[in-house]
Specification:
Layout (H helix, E strand, L loop, with lengths): L2 H15 L1 H12 L6 E9 L6 H4 L1 H5 L3 E8 L4 E7 L8 E7 L6 H12 L3 H4 L16 H10 L1 H9 L5 E5 L9 H10 L19 E5 L4 E6 L2 E6 L2 E7 L13 H7 L7
Parallel strand pairs: 1-4, 5-9
Antiparallel strand pairs: 1-5, 2-3, 3-4, 6-9, 7-8
Helix pairs in contact: 1-2, 7-8
Length: 266
């Protein structure tokens, strides 16, 4: 399948589930900007039935190739990123997975039960990446218990398979040329930024600067009742040229660590 078809479908799901993302996008376009994506990101568990390599399949089938591997020690995550060698302005695809062996037997057993509940046919299907939560009703008690160990696990328990975030390429913007300008623009329009570790993660010397909105909160039905929980966020990235003169294309584990906190339930 053509990569653009995949991204259009992911974007439709992402913006319908996250109204603030559409508003940010519309603020950019009203400002005369055309938005190009730097990358899109997914989250998953490290069970081999749904791990990074499984979620990557539809992208590999549409011409993407593996480019980099990352370890996020404090968040207990492993990730890979993928690029399309020939499609113009193709976003990078970033897929992370929770390293479950680093967590309690409760978390590990919960993950296994969730994956066991996914229909067998879906595990083999390119539809998996759009399929959201596939484990039936949610328990708020389980959600809270997962949160105590990993906000990432709790987020994944509620939302399942979908784009966790899209990322605007600041390099492609015409008028807002720095991340500082982008952040001011967003705040002037009333959006809340993730300021964990400062609004801007990374430095020009590290060749990548990123910022993000805080995830919007959505009312979710749990078996115990309805509770508001964080959904998805929107990210902004500015890349700098490496010594070879080409824009750096990878990711910085130290910076992304704080970006992951955009979905913390505060
Ligand atoms: Ni990102």
């Amino acid at each position: 399948m053509e990569a653009q078809v995949i991204f259009d479908r992911l974007w439709a799901g992402y913006t319908s589930q996250n109204p603030h993302v559409r508003k940010v996008y519309e603020a950019f376009t009203a400002h005369g900007e055309s938005v190009v994506n730097d990358h899109i990101a997914f989250r998953t568990f490290d069970d081999p039935r749904i791990g990074v390599d499984v979620l990557a399949r539809p992208f590999l089938a549409s011409g993407y190739v593996e480019k980099g591997e990352y370890v996020f020690e404090s968040k207990h995550l492993f990730a890979k990123h993928y690029e399309h060698p020939s499609m113009k302005d193709a976003p990078r695809v970033f897929i992370s997975q929770l390293v479950s062996r680093d967590f309690s037997p409760f978390l590990q057993q919960t993950v296994q039960a969730l994956v066991n509940a996914i229909p067998e046919g879906l595990l083999q299907s390119p539809e998996l990446i759009y399929s959201g939560r596939q484990w039936g009703s949610l328990s708020y008690q389980v959600y809270q218990k997962l949160r105590e160990e990993s906000e990432y696990a709790a987020w994944l328990y509620v939302w399942g398979f979908c784009a966790n975030h899209f990322t605007v390429s600041v390099n492609h913007l015409q008028k807002l040329s720095s991340l500082e300008q982008v952040n001011s623009f967003l705040k002037d329009h009333g959006f809340t930024l993730n300021d964990s570790g400062g609004e801007i993660k990374g430095t020009p010397a590290e060749l990548l600067e990123q910022s993000s909105t805080m995830a919007g909160r959505q009312l979710i039905s749990f078996v115990e009742g309805d509770y508001e929980v964080p959904a998805c966020y929107y990210e902004f990235a500015r890349r700098y040229p490496d010594t070879d003169g080409k824009l750096y294309s990878g990711f910085i584990a130290k910076s992304a660590d704080k970006i992951f906190e955009s979905t913390d339930n505060k």
